[in-house]
Amino acid sequence: MSRRKVLFILPSMRGGGSERVMSLLVRYLDRSRFTIVLLLLNKEGTYLKDLPDDIELVDLKAPRLRQAVVKLPFAIKKIKADVVMSTLSHVNIFMAMIRPFFSQKITFIARESSIVSVNNQNTPYPRLFNWLYKCFFGNFDRIVCQSNYMKNDLIKNYSIDEKLLTVIHNPVDIDRILHLAENDTKLYNTDKTNLLAVGRLGREKGFDLLLQSMVHLDKHFYLTIVGEGNELETLQQLAAKLDIADRVEFIGFQENPYQYMQQADMMILSSRHEGFPNVVLEANACGTPVVAFDCPGGTGEIIENGLNGFLVKCGDTEELAETIKKASNYPWNNEAIKNHIIHRYGLTHIIHQYEDILGANISSK
Question: What pTM value is reported for the model?
Answer without folding.
Answer: 0.87
